[in-house]
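Why should sequence recovery work at all? Because a backbone constrains its sequence more than one might expect. Tight turns favour small or flexible residues, buried strands favour hydrophobic ones, and helices have their own preferences. The token representation captures these environments compactly. In the example below, the structure is given first.
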């Protein structure tokens, strides 16, 4: 019986993001365009200004971001964060932080999306590399992803181009789906199941599970990690 769920409400996760201020070839500053396949993601803007560029089957959009803005998008949304003035965001992630734990494919040119090994060679940042080298790799993969992103934007009126990227992304992540399912089972599904069981027990007049109440608090487990969109402060949550 799952009477209490220990993770954040609903099985979500959070991180604090300082969007990259690195300039790109188009003169804008910001992060790496990418897409999630099974997770929605939300932004709570806490400081600065900027925008998120998005590309879906419905077309290209730009959503301005300012302090107080809450914006979110569903799986399949290609998104690129643009930093106009020290943009800082608290990121809300579905499925216990899966968006930062594998559920993301960068918009690299098609020749880098052919197999997991080729993709990894262009995207993985070694954890033991010097920080300067990590920054170089993060910026290089950002610029490479922008090449593929520009091609997708230029073909925004052709659904076949985005559909081809979707198929390539799905093939890349297929070997990891079993692990993703386990994360979902332990997280979002367990949270929903706990609520269902609590409702059942309340309907029976059983309030004993309320005696199991607990309070938890965490500080970031790491600061300034090189993420896809910027420097991350991340939490090691249940």
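From this structural description, the recovered sequence reads:
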């Amino acid at each position: 019986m799952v009477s209490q769920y220990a993770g954040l409400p609903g099985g979500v996760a959070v991180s604090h993001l300082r969007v990259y201020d690195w300039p790109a070839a188009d003169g804008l500053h910001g992060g790496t365009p990418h897409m999630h396949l099974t997770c929605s993601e939300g932004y709570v803007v806490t400081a600065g200004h900027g925008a998120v560029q998005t590309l879906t089957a419905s077309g290209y959009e730009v959503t301005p971001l300012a302090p107080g803005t809450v914006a979110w998008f569903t799986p399949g949304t290609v998104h690129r964060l643009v930093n106009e003035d020290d943009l800082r965001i608290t990121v809300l992630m579905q499925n216990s932080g899966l968006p930062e734990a594998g559920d993301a494919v960068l918009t690299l040119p098609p020749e880098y999306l052919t197999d997991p090994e080729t993709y990894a060679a262009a995207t993985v940042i070694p954890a033991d590399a010097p920080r300067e080298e990590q920054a170089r790799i993060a910026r290089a993969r950002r610029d490479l992803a922008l090449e593929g992103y520009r091609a997708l934007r230029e073909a925004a009126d052709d659904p076949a181009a985005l559909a081809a990227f979707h198929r390539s992304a799905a093939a890349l992540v297929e070997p990891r789906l079993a692990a993703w399912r386990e994360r979902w089972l332990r997280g979002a599904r367990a949270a929903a199941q706990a609520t269902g069981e609590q409702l059942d027990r309340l309907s029976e007049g059983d309030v004993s599970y309320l005696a199991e109440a607990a309070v938890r608090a965490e500080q970031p487990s790491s600061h300034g990690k090189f993420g896809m969109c910027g420097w991350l402060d991340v939490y090691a949550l249940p």
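A few observations help interpret the result. Residues 95 and 183 are 7 Å apart (CA to CA).
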